[in-house]
Design a protein that fits this description.
Radius of gyration: 45 Å
Helix content: over 70%
Strand content: under 5%
Oligomer: single chain
Distance between the termini: 39 Å
Number of domains: 2
Shape: rod-shaped
Largest sheet: none
Number of strands: 0
Order of helices and strands: HHHHHHHH
């Protein structure tokens, strides 16, 4: 909050209790204001003007702070409405997926998918099983052992990856769409080409190696190598087919999306609540300062009048009136409406709207 010119407790401050009492006594000795004068003495007029000026400054400061915070809060609330709409859409999609799973399996869906540890362990074993046989092929190129293992791993990883996605697509069973049919064909064709090519390179390597066994026909070795790799590929396809469940996957995907939307909405609500609380706190500080100024002006006015009356010499000349006429009129220091009601502008607009209607 800004630093305002305020009423000080320092003895020589123009509006300290001591100085106000001194001014009251001094004007009282001069019989000011006159007994019949309805106007306030200059010092009280000045005191009221200072109080009004301070209240205007506080009111302007609060208006600026309030406009900025309300603009930020209103922007966040608009964002909240949008997120509520997205959450409602995600909730509807989740409900559809939930009912589809329940209708197909006649049981409520699980809270989460079973652990995939054993599935991924099996795929890792399949990749590792490819390394010994495939590494023989890549030694034909005379590369380092590390690069040979990397290329062998790439071949095994390609087969297992194709098996994983082929099993999922076969489980979903959507073959009517041309794109899916093409993808299924590609996922079958890639392993066939890779295995056939590697088997051919392996056969060339065995022919050129003097240490290779001669009691095994080339065709038998070729068929055996291809069969071994294709069996590993089929094991991966079956494992993927068994694990994959389209409706459960879709449900869990919708559930994850719904949780994300709810979390996003919750974070935004917390931020709005924080800003609302901060706005209320700042309003209370401005409101308290305004009320303190009002009370101080009224208290100093009473002190001035009390000491003025005690020092006057014309009291006996006016026995029928207990005090000067101007003292009968209260000094009104009005706290602005927006320092009394945090939503004064909204209340005023509603009142005006109701009156117009």
């Amino acid at each position: 909050m800004a630093s305002y010119y305020s009423f000080g407790s320092w003895i020589f401050h123009p509006y300290s209790d001591w100085n106000v009492a001194r001014r009251g006594r001094r004007d009282g000795l001069k019989n000011l204001p006159s007994w019949k004068d309805p106007h306030q003495p200059p010092f009280l007029v000045e005191l009221k003007q200072v109080g009004d000026s301070m209240l205007r400054e506080i009111g302007e400061d609060w208006s600026q702070v309030n406009r900025k915070m309300k603009s930020e809060i209103d922007s966040l609330r608009q964002g909240l409405e949008h997120r509520n709409a997205l959450e409602a859409e995600a909730t509807a999609e989740h409900s559809v997926a939930h009912e589809a799973y329940k209708q197909e399996h006649d049981i409520p869906p699980p809270a989460s998918r079973a652990s995939a540890f054993w599935y991924w362990l099996l795929l890792a074993i399949l990749v590792a099983s490819e390394l010994p046989m495939n590494s023989l092929v890549f030694r034909l190129f005379g590369e380092s052992e590390i690069l040979t293992l990397v290329m062998a791993f790439a071949v095994g990883g390609t087969l297992v990856l194709c098996a994983h996605y082929l099993g999922e697509m076969l489980k979903e069973g959507y073959y009517k769409r041309r794109t899916n049919s093409i993808m299924v064909g590609v996922l079958i064709l890639i392993p066939v080409i890779v295995v056939g090519s590697v088997a051919l390179f392996r056969e060339v390597y065995l022919e050129s190696s003097p240490d290779a066994p001669k009691n095994l026909s080339q065709m038998a070795a070729y068929i055996g190598f291809c069969s071994f790799n294709l069996v590993l590929f089929l094991v991966g396809v079956v494992a993927s087919y068994r694990r994959h469940e389209e409706r459960l996957s879709r449900l869990l995907e919708r559930r994850k999306l719904l949780d994300k939307k709810r979390s996003s909405r919750s974070v935004l609500q917390q931020e709005i609540a924080r800003l609302d609380a901060e706005r209320v706190k700042l309003f209370q500080a401005h409101h308290l300062r305004g009320m303190q100024i009002k009370d101080t002006v009224e208290r100093l006015t009473a002190k001035y009048r009390t000491h003025n009356l005690e020092s006057r010499t014309d009291r006996e000349q006016n026995p029928d009136e207990g005090q000067p006429r101007s003292f009968l009129n209260a000094i009104e220091v009005k706290v602005p409406e927006h320092l009394q009601d945090i939503d004064a502008d909204v209340t005023k607009a509603r009142t005006a709207g109701g009156g117009t209607a």
